[in-house]
Amino acid sequence: MGLGPGRLDCLTGQARQALEEAQAVVGYRTYLELAAPLLEGKQVVASAMTRELDRAGLALDLALEGQKVALVSSGDPGIYAMAAVVFELARSRRLDLRSGGLALEVVPGVPALAAAASLLGAPLSHDFACVSLSDRLTPWELIEKRLSLAAEADFVIALYNPKSKGRAWQLGRACDIIAGQRSPRTPVGVVRKALRQGQSLEITDLAGAPQADIDMQTLLIVGNSQSFTYQGRLVTPRGYIDKYGEK
Amino acid sequence: MGLGPGRLDCLTGQARQALEEAQAVVGYRTYLELAAPLLEGKQVVASAMTRELDRAGLALDLALEGQKVALVSSGDPGIYAMAAVVFELARSRRLDLRSGGLALEVVPGVPALAAAASLLGAPLSHDFACVSLSDRLTPWELIEKRLSLAAEADFVIALYNPKSKGRAWQLGRACDIIAGQRSPRTPVGVVRKALRQGQSLEITDLAGAPQADIDMQTLLIVGNSQSFTYQGRLVTPRGYIDKYGEK
Fold first, then answer.
1. CB-closest option in B108, B130, B244 to A127
2. Pick from B168, B169, B178: which is nearest to B215 by CA?
3. C-alpha dist (Å) from residue B49 to A143, A155, A194, A216, B110
4. CB pair distance less than 8 Å for A150 and B145
5. Is residue A109 classed as helix, strand or coil in its secondary structure?
6. d(CA B111, CA A133)
């Protein structure tokens, strides 16, 4: 299930109910802290960030013992998060997910990209691509290929996992690849901790983005060739004014 | 502001509060009906689907008169929805959006793509692209180019606005383009009215997708080369099992 960006008022009613009904709640420590006020009286199992398989396995074990389990992700659980890990593991264990078997439900949440976009203005409002710069599970060559083709397609590009302590050069390289097919003046929104405590944002451009204050809780949105800034907002037009003018 | 997919329990607390505080609510008729129980006692202005500029202009006019206005989209307002239209219009009218001027806030919602993905399983869990097949404002040649490059990049591909009464052939052509670089057996999720009354879904493949029951309230998610189906779910693996195995 998805907690959304972090502020409790960004949770959906469906997600809140799933938490309320859960007997056990499993998740990465930082995300569980976001939901702390809703976890009283429950069995809570927190784990470190890189233990995705452990978390999914534990959640499945508890559920198979008969408990109602909520496995939490921040944002949406289906976007670079835990939902797929659970299904990968369920298939590997050949679990029965049909009626009568284990009841797995994915509860969506507001994804980080929608939260970041809402603070910037409307940068995602035309065709877009979403690319993670983490090469922990994906070969860097494939990430470069995707960036290059997404740039050629003039997609707005959301960059997840732009930088971490041990991974610093990838973002500069990504911006260079995109700038190979888009002006270095293309506006870029940099949003850290969108709709969660400590939120900050900046609008820069492709040339300036690698120097911005960026960590694993930051998401970048690179405009397409039509994106513009207006009074501190980053907007990708849908094209109504160009086509119809204002009456 | 975004209503999310439609069911009222998919609304966030932030969106619910924005509706409660609004004196006037503006939106496309079908979306306003989704939120009807929350609109009592408010000035409600419903309009037809294709009147996006009218809706945005009216919302701005009411706000400039001093009213608190909620302009609603279903899903997330920043993804093929009204947020950009408002900013396009604000720029065209040279409105002051800085402090002391008009206070514009975008309230995110669970996007249709996250709602659809949650029902299918976890199809969006790796890099993905989002493409609208509507050529009302975008030249069809550009849409084809984006589809072709997205397919070459092995993105999971979410297709918005796949078909309407007057626009039937585009989806078949889109599937052909993707199948040029991906097996015709690639799984495709077809979700109609995700998390709203009348919901239905089907998992087919690229060859079968054009024959599915599809309209403007349908979203398609085309898997990448790694996507699989398991017990009625469509999943794009993140790769944990392949890399680490199960302990």
1. B130
2. B168
3. 38, 25, 31, 39, 20
4. no
5. coil
6. 23
Model confidence pLDDT, tens digit, residues A153-207: 999 999 999 998 888 999 999 999 999 999 999 999 999 999 999 999 999 999 9
Minimal Cα distance from B7: which residue of A?
A: A14
A229 CB neighbours in chain B (<8 A) are none
Instruction: Name which of B10, B17, B132 is nearest A14 (Cβ-Cβ).
Output: B10
Confirm if A230 and B87 have CB atoms less than 8 A apart.
yes
Q: pLDDT tens across B196-224, in order?
A: 999 999 999 999 999 999 998 999 999 99
Task: State how far the Cα of A233 lies from the Cα of B76, in Å rounded to an integer.
Answer: 17
A17-53 burial string, b = 16+ CB within 10 Å, else e?
Answer: ebbeebebbbbbeebbebbeebbeeeebbeeeeeebb
A158's enclosing H/E stretch is: strand A156-160
Nearest to B64 by CA among B44, B81, B86: B86
β pairing state of B228-230 and B233-235: antiparallel
**Spacing of C-alpha A25 from chain mean position:** 20
Max distance between CA atoms of chain B, in angstroms, equals: 63
CB contact under 8 A, A155 and B146: yes
Tokens of B212: 């599915």
CA nearest B222: which of B198, B177, B189?
B189
